[in-house]
Amino acid sequence: MATAPDDRHPGLDPGSRTTAPDDGHPGLDPGSRTTRPLISVILPTFNRPGYLREAAASILGQTVEDLELLIVDDCSTDETDAVIADLCREDRRVAGLRTESNGGCNRARNLALDRAKGRCIAFLDDDDVAVPGRFESCLAALEARPSSGFASCGYGFIDARGTRLPGSAPEFDAGVE
Protein backbone atom coordinates (compact mmCIF):
# COMPACT_ATOMS: atom_id res chain seq x y z
CA MET A 1 0.00 0.00 0.00
CA ALA A 2 1.38 3.40 -0.93
CA THR A 3 0.43 6.81 0.32
CA ALA A 4 -0.82 9.28 -2.24
CA PRO A 5 2.03 11.59 -3.30
CA ASP A 6 0.10 14.78 -2.56
CA ASP A 7 -0.83 13.86 0.99
CA ARG A 8 1.75 12.44 3.39
CA HIS A 9 0.17 10.50 6.19
CA PRO A 10 0.58 12.43 9.44
CA GLY A 11 -0.37 9.54 11.67
CA LEU A 12 -3.18 8.64 9.26
CA ASP A 13 -5.61 10.26 11.67
CA PRO A 14 -9.06 9.70 10.14
CA GLY A 15 -10.10 13.10 11.48
CA SER A 16 -7.47 14.82 9.38
CA ARG A 17 -8.94 13.75 6.04
CA THR A 18 -9.63 16.54 3.63
CA THR A 19 -12.89 17.16 1.85
CA ALA A 20 -12.84 16.08 -1.77
CA PRO A 21 -15.75 16.54 -4.17
CA ASP A 22 -16.97 13.43 -5.94
CA ASP A 23 -16.43 13.64 -9.68
CA GLY A 24 -19.15 11.19 -10.61
CA HIS A 25 -17.54 7.77 -10.46
CA PRO A 26 -20.09 5.22 -11.66
CA GLY A 27 -21.47 3.40 -8.67
CA LEU A 28 -20.78 6.24 -6.26
CA ASP A 29 -23.64 8.50 -5.28
CA PRO A 30 -22.20 12.02 -5.70
CA GLY A 31 -23.84 13.10 -2.45
CA SER A 32 -22.70 10.07 -0.48
CA ARG A 33 -19.03 10.92 0.02
CA THR A 34 -18.13 14.10 1.83
CA THR A 35 -14.59 13.17 2.79
CA ARG A 36 -11.72 11.63 0.94
CA PRO A 37 -11.52 7.85 1.50
CA LEU A 38 -8.55 6.55 3.44
CA ILE A 39 -7.77 3.87 0.84
CA SER A 40 -8.39 3.55 -2.88
CA VAL A 41 -8.17 -0.08 -3.94
CA ILE A 42 -7.52 -0.65 -7.63
CA LEU A 43 -8.70 -3.95 -9.12
CA PRO A 44 -8.13 -4.46 -12.87
CA THR A 45 -10.03 -7.28 -14.55
CA PHE A 46 -10.37 -8.97 -17.92
CA ASN A 47 -12.78 -11.84 -18.63
CA ARG A 48 -12.75 -13.25 -15.09
CA PRO A 49 -16.26 -12.80 -13.73
CA GLY A 50 -15.94 -16.02 -11.73
CA TYR A 51 -13.05 -14.65 -9.68
CA LEU A 52 -14.09 -11.01 -9.57
CA ARG A 53 -16.90 -11.29 -7.04
CA GLU A 54 -14.68 -13.12 -4.52
CA ALA A 55 -11.82 -10.64 -5.01
CA ALA A 56 -14.18 -7.69 -4.45
CA ALA A 57 -15.75 -9.34 -1.39
CA SER A 58 -12.31 -9.78 0.16
CA ILE A 59 -11.78 -6.01 -0.10
CA LEU A 60 -15.26 -4.94 0.96
CA GLY A 61 -15.07 -7.24 4.00
CA GLN A 62 -11.87 -5.70 5.37
CA THR A 63 -11.80 -4.34 8.93
CA VAL A 64 -10.86 -0.95 7.46
CA GLU A 65 -14.09 0.11 5.75
CA ASP A 66 -13.09 3.66 4.76
CA LEU A 67 -12.22 2.82 1.18
CA GLU A 68 -13.26 3.01 -2.41
CA LEU A 69 -12.91 0.01 -4.71
CA LEU A 70 -12.17 0.97 -8.30
CA ILE A 71 -12.79 -2.01 -10.58
CA VAL A 72 -11.41 -1.47 -14.08
CA ASP A 73 -12.81 -3.68 -16.85
CA ASP A 74 -10.13 -3.93 -19.54
CA CYS A 75 -12.71 -4.44 -22.32
CA SER A 76 -13.93 -7.87 -21.26
CA THR A 77 -16.00 -9.77 -23.82
CA ASP A 78 -18.02 -11.81 -21.33
CA GLU A 79 -20.37 -11.00 -18.42
CA THR A 80 -17.71 -9.17 -16.38
CA ASP A 81 -19.50 -5.85 -16.94
CA ALA A 82 -22.70 -7.27 -15.40
CA VAL A 83 -20.80 -8.46 -12.32
CA ILE A 84 -19.26 -4.99 -11.92
CA ALA A 85 -22.69 -3.35 -12.29
CA ASP A 86 -24.07 -5.67 -9.58
CA LEU A 87 -21.18 -4.85 -7.25
CA CYS A 88 -21.75 -1.11 -7.79
CA ARG A 89 -25.44 -1.50 -6.91
CA GLU A 90 -24.65 -3.60 -3.83
CA ASP A 91 -22.05 -1.31 -2.25
CA ARG A 92 -21.68 2.44 -2.72
CA ARG A 93 -17.90 2.15 -2.20
CA VAL A 94 -17.54 0.34 -5.54
CA ALA A 95 -16.96 2.25 -8.77
CA GLY A 96 -16.77 0.60 -12.18
CA LEU A 97 -14.48 1.92 -14.90
CA ARG A 98 -13.83 0.57 -18.39
CA THR A 99 -10.89 1.05 -20.72
CA GLU A 100 -11.60 2.13 -24.30
CA SER A 101 -9.65 -0.83 -25.66
CA ASN A 102 -7.88 -3.84 -24.16
CA GLY A 103 -4.48 -2.61 -23.07
CA GLY A 104 -3.46 -4.89 -20.23
CA CYS A 105 -3.60 -4.62 -16.47
CA ASN A 106 -1.01 -1.84 -16.13
CA ARG A 107 -2.97 0.47 -18.42
CA ALA A 108 -6.13 -0.39 -16.47
CA ARG A 109 -4.37 0.38 -13.17
CA ASN A 110 -3.21 3.74 -14.52
CA LEU A 111 -6.77 4.65 -15.50
CA ALA A 112 -7.89 3.97 -11.93
CA LEU A 113 -4.91 5.84 -10.46
CA ASP A 114 -6.09 8.94 -12.31
CA ARG A 115 -9.52 8.61 -10.65
CA ALA A 116 -8.44 7.43 -7.18
CA LYS A 117 -9.25 9.73 -4.27
CA GLY A 118 -7.77 7.77 -1.37
CA ARG A 119 -4.94 8.94 0.83
CA CYS A 120 -3.40 5.49 0.32
CA ILE A 121 -3.42 3.30 -2.78
CA ALA A 122 -3.69 -0.49 -2.71
CA PHE A 123 -3.82 -3.00 -5.54
CA LEU A 124 -5.48 -6.38 -5.94
CA ASP A 125 -5.65 -8.49 -9.08
CA ASP A 126 -8.93 -10.08 -10.12
CA ASP A 127 -7.74 -13.60 -9.36
CA ASP A 128 -6.48 -12.73 -5.86
CA VAL A 129 -8.13 -12.33 -2.48
CA ALA A 130 -7.10 -10.08 0.39
CA VAL A 131 -6.95 -11.85 3.73
CA PRO A 132 -8.85 -10.22 6.61
CA GLY A 133 -6.86 -7.48 8.31
CA ARG A 134 -4.65 -6.72 5.29
CA PHE A 135 -5.20 -2.96 5.38
CA GLU A 136 -5.20 -2.73 9.15
CA SER A 137 -1.78 -4.35 9.18
CA CYS A 138 -0.38 -2.08 6.46
CA LEU A 139 -1.79 1.06 8.06
CA ALA A 140 -0.27 0.10 11.42
CA ALA A 141 3.10 -0.27 9.69
CA LEU A 142 2.74 3.15 8.06
CA GLU A 143 1.74 4.75 11.36
CA ALA A 144 4.78 3.23 13.04
CA ARG A 145 7.02 4.99 10.50
CA PRO A 146 5.39 8.27 9.41
CA SER A 147 8.26 9.18 7.08
CA SER A 148 7.74 6.08 4.92
CA GLY A 149 5.58 6.03 1.87
CA PHE A 150 5.08 2.31 1.25
CA ALA A 151 4.00 -0.76 3.20
CA SER A 152 3.72 -4.35 2.06
CA CYS A 153 2.41 -7.49 3.69
CA GLY A 154 2.77 -11.21 3.11
CA TYR A 155 1.01 -13.18 0.43
CA GLY A 156 0.07 -16.75 -0.24
CA PHE A 157 -0.61 -18.97 -3.21
CA ILE A 158 -3.67 -21.21 -3.25
CA ASP A 159 -5.16 -23.53 -5.80
CA ALA A 160 -8.77 -23.50 -7.06
CA ARG A 161 -9.86 -25.45 -3.97
CA GLY A 162 -8.24 -22.95 -1.57
CA THR A 163 -5.33 -25.22 -0.61
CA ARG A 164 -2.21 -23.23 0.31
CA LEU A 165 0.68 -23.91 -2.09
CA PRO A 166 4.46 -23.77 -1.55
CA GLY A 167 6.22 -20.49 -2.29
CA SER A 168 4.05 -18.26 -0.10
CA ALA A 169 5.53 -15.45 1.93
CA PRO A 170 4.94 -15.41 5.69
CA GLU A 171 1.44 -14.26 6.56
CA PHE A 172 1.10 -10.63 7.50
CA ASP A 173 4.66 -9.68 8.10
CA ALA A 174 3.77 -6.10 7.24
CA GLY A 175 6.92 -4.22 6.50
CA VAL A 176 7.62 -0.66 5.57
CA GLU A 177 9.86 0.23 2.70
**Are there runs of 5+ residues with pLDDT below 50, and where?**
5-33, 172-177
The SSE string, one letter per element, is EEHEHEHEHEEEE
Number of H- or I-type helical stretches = 4
Shape: globular
Q: Identify the strand order in the major beta sheet.
A: 1-5-2-3-4
Secondary-structure class: alpha/beta
Beta-strand residue percentage: 15-25%
End-to-end C-alpha gap = 10 Å
Summarize the structure.
With 177 residues, the protein is of the alpha/beta class. The chain has helices spanning 49-60, 80-90, 105-115, 134-144, and strands at residues 2-3, 39-45, 67-73, 94-98, 120-123, 151-152, 157-158, 164-165, 175-176. It is globular, with a radius of gyration of 16 Å.
Write the layout of secondary structure elements.
Layout: E1 2-3, E2 39-45, H1 49-60, E3 67-73, H2 80-90, E4 94-98, H3 105-115, E5 120-123, H4 134-144, E6 151-152, E7 157-158, E8 164-165, E9 175-176
Parallel strand pairs: 2-3, 2-5, 3-4
Antiparallel strand pairs: 1-5, 6-9, 7-8
Helix pairs in contact: 1-2
Report on the structure:
The protein is of the alpha/beta class. The chain has four helices and nine strands; from the N terminus they run ββαβαβαβαββββ. The chain has helices at residues 49-60, 80-90, 105-115, 134-144, and strands at 2-3, 39-45, 67-73, 94-98, 120-123, 151-152, 157-158, 164-165, 175-176. The strands form three sheets. It has a five-stranded mixed sheet, with helices on both faces. Helix 2 links the parallel strand 3 (67-73) and strand 4 (94-98). Helix 1 (49-60) packs parallel to helix 2 (80-90). The N and C termini lie close together (10 Å).
